[in-house]
Amino acid sequence: MSNIREVAKVAGVSIATVSRALSHPDKVSKNSLKKVNDAIALVGYKPNMLARNFRFHKSYAILVLVPELANPFFSTVVKGIEDVARQKGFNVLLGDSRDSIDREKEYLKLIETRQADGVIQLRPHRPADGQIFSHADFPVVSACGCVGTPYPSVRIDNAAAQQQVVEHLISLGHTRIGVITGLADNPHSIVRLKGYKQALENAGIPFDDTLVTEGDFSLWSGLNSATQFIHMDQKPTAIVAFNDEMAIGAIKGFKSVGLDVPNDISVTGFDDIEFSKYNEPTLTTISQPATELGKTAMNLLHRLLEGKTLAQQEYILPFEFIVRGSTANKA
Ligand code: RIB
Fold it and tell me: What pTM does this model have?
């Protein structure tokens, strides 16, 4: 197998010159660079990846900031990112930020130290975050975000999706519809709540804030909200959870006190994670195109890494409303 020594010998230059030609081609004379490149071609030398990365000042890695890796929705998005990244010759570094901006800032050191070339942020941008990414320095793409993201982004229309879910429940005769949001300041909570309110308003049903409980997108918080609904004097007849995990947690809570889902109470989710098809009952939910969101985000980031511009700042992908076994007519 050829090596750098052989290249130097054939090119008639020192090993140091070959090395410099690989790492800093701009610091080598045109004549020497040509000799080195010709020798590389002649002996069939393949510079290793490290040398390639040094030469182009690139790591060929991207950083994906995930708010909650344990959430199957996000791991599916990451799968889509990874599929495209591999095709493009990039490795994926994962940072599980647990929805914390401070953790994200820590992970950005990977960019500062050139261990990653660009970022895909899956945590929805909050106005209070400011612009932690100065995208003049490195490219950033937001996936699964919300309206008002300052970076190029790909997402679904969360408000329209949630509105469609509530309209379905209203069409089944439900008017007391409880809500399980994520954390109150999470943009998905805010935007999905807008969709919920819009559906009520269109149907002439007054909004009642006592029917809104705050979760945190976890199974446990869904179960906790179910307990709150069970103890209400005027119980809701249907519940919209702002993701599938909370819906599954809530169903467990209702079943534990002998309530039948959907005959006593309907429950809906959001995301269409794999478990939603296996839950008992199966979950009526919004299917987000998780893999496609990831693939699109990586394709956009790759364009930016190549110094190209994007046709749009915001890419909205279609969602699908799936009716399964967890919703029924009001008893
Ligand atoms: O951040 C949590 C939720 O927001 C996920 O479950 C998914 O719905 C995402 O959009």
Answer: 0.83
